[in-house]
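hey so u asked for the seq, here:
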Amino acid sequence: MAKQYETVIGLEVHVELATATKIFCGCSTKFGGAPNTHTCPVCTGMPGSLPVLNKQVVEYALALGLAANCEVNQNCKFDRKNYFYPDNPQNYQISQLYLPICHDGFLEIQTNAGTKKIRIHEMHMEEDAGKLIHDEWEDCSLVDYNRSGVPLVEIVSEPDMRNAEEVIAYLEKLRMICQYLGVSDCKLQEGSMRADVNLSVREVGTETFGTRTEMKNLNSFKAIARAIEGERERQIELIEEGKAVQQETRRWDDNKEYSYAMRSKEDAKDYRYFPDPDLPPVFISDEWIKRIKDSQPELQEAKSARYEKEYGLSAYDASLLTQSKHLADLFEETVKESQNPKKTANWFIGETLRLLKDRAMEAEELRFTPKHLADLILMAEKGEVNNQNAKKVFEKIFDEDVEPKAYVETNGLKTVEDTGMLESVVDKVLADNPKTVEEYHSGKTKVLGFLVGQVMKQMKGKANPASVNKMLMEKL
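ran it, structure tokens below
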């Protein structure tokens, strides 16, 4: 009988914090910018320059730790992690090994298998390194220190995940919490959220872990899922062939769907960690923790529960509307304007989410004015524009944020309420389709839909379908 294997996965997630300035200096953290323009002696590691801790970094890390049910190290400190790499200007990175700011937390995730608790080993603050740009043409490498010193929180999970679905659910939950708290935008494509996957396989039923590998260069959830599948298969193949899995760091190439070895994995002792002599320990008082706790915004679970209670929405609809803070904020603004939560929810779930999917957009990219959608909902309710045309108008609001009333007028989409004109069109359609009328009278009532369609066609979609239906029934 073939052996059954279990995948064991733990994640190291780096989240870039949304502070205006870097962790130990006053340089801008803005993404983009010409190379080496957001730099100073501190973040380029000049001798004699001294780091000064950005208080906002501590506040963001605390907020995230509390939201992830972590314990807080009220006395935490920074350490130097020593390694030489061209994008690391000081030849050490300021991080936290011995006393990280937060530890022993958890996140609850939902998958098809139900609810699962993923434990968080620790969270620590650290600085980012610069970026190497390899120039193929000139056959040289250039370094950009704009990113050097950008504040990060590294979230290290326990090896509690067993498949790609759980990994993605955990990352999505983490990203959602960061966005709700406003501590990071978590854009994977810009590198403000990066996940390294530690993965090993073992026979089902065994307690001991297999040899793990760490995979880097994962910049989308799809790439992470593909990398997990690819690495799982590679390790099983090695074991089946009687070969040993090497503990190493591997780089995932998403185009080739293949990972290759970068370096054998170092241990903490290889980094020669020691307390940073330039930075005093950080004392976090009970009052400080209380203040952060009290200022935490309403997170997704609480918001979802409120939508059920306050707006009478189903649990499923409420969870869809709160999956992104930006989407939830837009929805609430639109409800204020429309005073119709149920109808507004239908427009968001039916049309907004459909268009986001069609356009391959993130909810954070939505830019339409809530009042414009609310006005359209009211127009559709009053029958001033029929449902089919309302959807066309919403597409314009979604793409260009047009003012619906003006757009409907200009493009002649207003419903025609002229009953005399409607009656003459209904009479003509009935006269032109005697066979269909006969079928209707012989009991085939389904043909009514065809007749409604013919009238709508003649009216260029400007009639109210309910009025057309009513008039046809009366005539028939």
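The CA atoms of residues 44 and 89 lie 5 Å apart. The chain is about 40% helix and 20% strand.
lmk if thats what u needed
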